Amino acid sequence: GMERRRAPAAPPRYGRRRFWDALYRQEGAETREWLGGLSRFLPQLEPELRPGDRILVLGCGNSALSHDLYELGYTDVTSIDFSPACIAAMLARYAHCPGLRWAVMDIRALTFPDASFDVVLEKGTLDVLMVEETDPWHVSPQAAAAMRRVLAEVSRVLRPGGCFISITFAQPHFRKPHYAQEAFGWSLRHAACGDGDAGAFHYFLYVMRKGQPLDPRDVALGHRLHQPPPPPAPPPPLAPLEDDEDYLLAIQL
What we know:
The chain has a single domain, classed as Vaccinia Virus protein VP39 (Rossmann fold). 32% of the residues lie in helices and 19% in strands. It has helices at 17-27, 42-45, 65-71, 84-93, 127-130, 141-157, 172-179, 216-224, 241-252; strands spanning 55-58, 77-81, 100-104, 117-123, 158-168, 186-193, 203-210. Strands 3-2-1-4-5-7-6 form a 7-stranded mixed sheet, with helices on both faces. Helix 1 (17-27) runs parallel beside helix 4 and helix 7 crosses helix 8. It starts with 16 loop residues before the first helix and ends with a helix. Belongs to the methyltransferase superfamily. Keywords: Methyltransferase, Phosphoprotein, S-adenosyl-L-methionine, Transferase.
C-alpha cells in the first residue's frame, strides 16, 4: 500500500497553557526576556509614562519588566499571565514589592472595570496570537478575531487619554492594520527600536493614545483587514489547438 507520509512536526503550542506552565516550572525563578531588557527601549517608553500611572502589563511571563518599572519609580504595576505557575513564581519572587500586583488572567477577557488603567503595556505577548500564522499577508480569521478581542479589552480598561504600548518584532505593514481600528477609539504611531548596530535586529514600539483620532492613512490601512480576500486568479487560457499539435509532432520527431 501507499506509504503514510509523516506529518511535519507541529510548532510549539505557545497558545497552550500547559506549554507555558511546564516552561515556568522548569525554569523556576529564572527571568527570561523575549525582546531584550527594559534598557533597550526605555528612551522610547519613558516619555509616555508618568510616575503615578496605573500600569497593566499583559502576558508578563517571567520577564523582569514589571520589577524594572517598579525600580524606576513606577510603583503601581499590575501584571497578568494565563499561567498559574508563572504567577505563583512571580508573586514569590517579588513579595517584597507591595506595589507590584500579580493575577492569573486571560488577555482576551480581562476582569478589570472599564477605564481602570493609565497605561497598558505588552512586550511580545500579542506575537503569540500570530505565532502559527504562516502568511503575514493573509492572516487567518481566527488570529484576526483573537487579536481584535484582546485589543477591544485593552481599549475598554484604558482611561481616556491613557495609552497602550506594544513592543514587538511585527513590522508596521503587518501589525498596524490590527491596531488601526476606529472601534478602539485611539490614535496610533510607532517607532523603530534597536541597539544602533547596523546588524541589530530591529523591533517596534507602537503607541496608541485613547481618545485621539486615527490618521486617515491608518484608517485606510485598518480597512484592509476586513476586506474579503481577492478572488482566486482565473486559470491561464488553454493554448490554441494548433500549437498543441505542433508540440506533439515535435516530440515525435
